Amino acid sequence: IDVVDRFVLVEACTHLHHWQKRGLVERDVSISVNLSAHELADTTTETNVAEMLAASKFDPGNLVLEITESAMMRDTQLVIRNLHALKALGLRVALDDFGTGYSSLAYLEQLPIDILKIDRSFVTALSDDEDQVGLAQAIIKIAETLGHTTIAEGVETADQVTRLRQLGCRLGQGYHLGAPLDARGTEDMLRARAENSRIGAPS
Fold it and tell me: Are 173 and 151 in contact (CB under 8 A)?
């Protein structure tokens, strides 16, 4: 898994850097990469990430590392130390599937994270029942209190987008917003978007 993690991280950053240099995306666009529980508890991970960033000249401000609550169960204090070391590189950290794991609110306040991702189960509940906004709303309020950004996962309908905006969540991911694409498909999409922008621009 370590080899896979490092390969994915390098490939993701390489592709984004490539698209930035060609003007297909803005310089402040970021990319998110999952970090496995094993890598999160490995004291060499910070060194490996630092070396990759230096070698590729990739801006760490454009990188978000995503971790899960379950990853915290291995050795919480070690994970927190490792996250602080990673954050010191200038990147951001997102806590994925929030609300479905085991980490307590006490630990949440200690974690050096920037983003809370609302699990799709809470997003789905928004459209199933008009009264099922409590947990999603609570997560958004917790994030606001701690100064974190929220991202909703599994957004699949326009109604969910409306409800999330009403609750104060401005970012999301899901099939309603865009289907998953591989690197080649993403570049084709970005080129088409850039071409459409040029066509629509005033002469």
Answer: yes
